[in-house]
């Protein structure tokens, strides 16, 4: 497994830890979308948050498995890394703005170095993918 694949898999593992941290520490009680659902539908926000995170992790694992075997295999790590970089920065900014712990900031900080590594090495990944695509095929 090359370093980009390993870093992408690490992001998925960090997302699992991140989702768990957010769930245990009630992120859904502080995030505006889930606050709306909690106010409107009582406990639907918590259940919806849990279902969303389980679905997200399942989707990420599915995409990871497909990503390196399909024509779009070099796109998934970049898109995913960009989203997680934003996620990590989002949590850090809210922690600074609120001047207190914001659920998800501890694990969210780990998104930043892995995401930057993937984004920084995108050109290398792109070259590797294109080289693999031009490799001779057995008939």
Architecture overview:
- This protein has 139 residues and is mainly alpha-helical.
- It has one domain.
- It is 76% helix and 0% strand.
- It is built from seven helices and no strands.
- The protein has helices at 3-24, 32-41, 44-67, 75-98, 105-108, 111-120, 122-133.
- Helix 1 (3-24) runs antiparallel to helix 6.
Brief rundown of the structure:
With 139 residues, the protein is mainly alpha-helical.
Defining key terms:
mainly alpha, single chain, 7 helices, globular, 139 residues
List the SSEs and their pairings:
Layout: H1 3-24, H2 32-41, H3 44-67, H4 75-98, H5 105-108, H6 111-120, H7 122-133
Helix pairs in contact: 1-3, 1-4, 1-6, 2-3, 4-6
Flag low-confidence runs.
Answer: 133-139
Instruction: Classify the beta-strand content into a percent band.
Output: under 5%
Q: Give me the strand/helix succession.
A: HHHHHHH
- Give the count of structural domains: 1
What is the 3D form?
Answer: globular
The residue-averaged pLDDT reads 77
Distance between the termini: 26 Å
Task: Count up the helices.
Answer: 7
The total count of strands amounts to 0
Rg over CA atoms, rounded to whole Å, is: 18 Å
Tell me roughly what share of residues is in helical segments: over 70%
Main sheet properties:
none
């Amino acid at each position: 497994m090359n370093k980009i694949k390993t870093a992408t898999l690490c992001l998925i593992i960090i997302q699992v830890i991140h989702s768990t941290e957010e769930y245990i520490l009630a992120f859904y009680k502080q995030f505006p979308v889930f606050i709306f659902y909690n106010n409107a539908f009582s406990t639907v926000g918590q259940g919806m948050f849990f279902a969303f995170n389980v679905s997200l992790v399942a989707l990420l694992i599915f995409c990871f498995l497909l990503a390196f075997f399909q024509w779009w295999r070099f796109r998934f790590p970049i898109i995913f890394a960009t989203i997680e970089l934003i996620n990590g920065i989002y949590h850090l900014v809210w922690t600074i703005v609120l001047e207190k712990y914001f659920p998800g900031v501890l694990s969210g900080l780990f998104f930043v170095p892995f995401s930057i590594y993937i984004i920084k090495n995108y050109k290398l990944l792109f070259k590797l993918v294109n080289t693999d695509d031009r490799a001779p095929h057995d008939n």
